[in-house]
Fold:
Amino acid sequence: MLSSRLPRLGPWIAKRLFTRNYASIYRGRYNQSTRNRFLQPPAFQQLSLNKLYNGAMIGKHNFLSTTSNEGNEQKETISVTFVDKDGEEQHIRVPVGMSMLEAAHENDIELEGACEGSLACSTCHVIVMDVEYYNKLEDPTDEENDMLDLAFGLSETSRLGCQVIAKPELDGIRLAIPAATRNFAVDGYVPKPH
Amino acid sequence: MQNVVILQARKWFSRSLSSFSSNPLKVCVVGSGPAGFYTAEKMLKAHQQAQVDIIDRLPTPFGLVRSGVAPDHPETKIVINQFSRVAQHEQCSFLGNVTLGSSISLSELRKLYHVVVLAYGAESDRSLGIPGESLKGIYSAREFVWWYNGHPDGRNLDPDLKNTDAAVILGQGNVALDVARILLRPTAELATTDIANYALAALEESSIRKVYLVGRRGPAQAACTAKELREILGIRNVDISIQEVDLRLTPADEEELKSNRIKRRVHELLSKAAAKPRTAGLNQRELHFVFFRKPDSFQESEDRTGHVSGVHFEKTVLKGDGPGKQIAIGTGEFEDIKCGLVLKSIGYKSVPVDGLPFDHKKGIVPNFRGRVLSDTSGDPTLLEEGLYVCGWLKRGPTGIVATNLHCAEETVLSISEDIEKGMLISSAALPKPGREGLLQLLQDRDVRIVSFSDWEKIDSEEKRLGSSRNKPREKLSTWDELHKAALE
Structure:
């Protein structure tokens, strides 16, 4: 299908035609009950993305590490997948000990971080897509819970990206970046505190 | 498949008008707080060739992040780094010292730009409309916050903190907690923040020992959030007083808490604090949470005419149709709290400008997802072309910094949709003067613009002055000082 191959072949045209714009007809409303819809990216993107990544990622045990073995020092990394509000997936490798917020920024993933990891905002809110991984995380502190209180699209498996630190048990974790616009001005809307 | 191709072609065509012709989209954002900056950032991301100008009436950017966030909350101000990066983007310009309504009118701005986004927030206050409201010693929390944060319009508030031992704060939201905390926190802790030096001096000499946080309704309806509550309950040398009887929950209250995580945690914190034994006398200062009291009038002092000496409250009970809709009804029983300082923290209010449709009841600009409507009828087809709103001016004065992130996303989405649907084509196809036109007009009117690099001079000077006093910065808080640092 020509229209789905174009993004990979013609970056300049593609940027104009297929930039990930909210105005795209493929953008659905992200909402809890239809969350599964976002686990499958829209058809035209899925084709190209899967082709790129299915080959490289073989199950959870990714021995095709993208971090180079420099000399004798090999930093242990885990595989993390970010799923954005349009359902697009980005697979990255994160060194053990790095926060998900930092990892996202290093890989140009659009995760906001207004307070730069100082537990003073909720903009790096991510949803851990699989409950088994959520349970492997340490419980949030009072301070993190205070900030989660204010997060948009809060779910049962929500965490702040700056507080999720990469460790070997989290290899393969998938994090969804919530869409926010659904929270606006609907009947029964409760004003947020300030 | 065919539809996809046609749609993409149309999008390509309309985007070409803003994308790669020699006729870039010209956008003006009025207001440089979080709403303004998030809007600018998202506009630049969505429209790669757009030129975005951010104007502000102050010579300093960042709105309430600079003048609203409390001095002892420096982490909340870190977002300034992100906003600075936006201002430094080559297609973005910050233009300070430019006031909508006096330096330039709204209609003039709309002629210069394809898109105008109003994000100038809410610089006025709701009033109670009760007797005695104009007595001395009664201020809005907004004015008090501007005062201790060194806002040039708050610099001369000069509240008298030495004539009394008690302050009453009306309202129990986070702003109320902020002002209570600033009045109660040991001043040694404030001395290393960016609090204005004259405010620190006044607080060091303050005789206020008792602060009352008074709400019309109960703990289940308090608007504050857990972080701020936890913080104020933990202030050194402050005794907390909460009546356990006030914490009893009605069935309607239980319903409200069930579906509201924030309120649940707030209630837990208040309950724990109420259960702790009081250590009265050992601590120097007291914080009293008072519920179910509605201000009826302000009492005038007999010794000092024209000055407040107390608040006359009516006790209330809650009545309502259901959870979330309970309101406070007076019972006819009254009670007084003596005090020499009253801070009203009952909500901000936006200020309209000429040529701008305004809903005076809600205090916002009538809009549909950020598109300004021509009147308050709510008819979404009567739009003001090219005019949008974001932030408090759009939603009302609630929410945190991050709320504007999503608010901006919605407004920018509306703008992009309008461009794609061809609703702005009539003007987008025509070049508009944009920044050049604005600069020329302002020069003709002798308006001395403060650019972002001019602000950086103010910023360096404040940091320099602060470093010798062990503060992150010493704010320049008069118009003269600010202009001098920026423009000389």
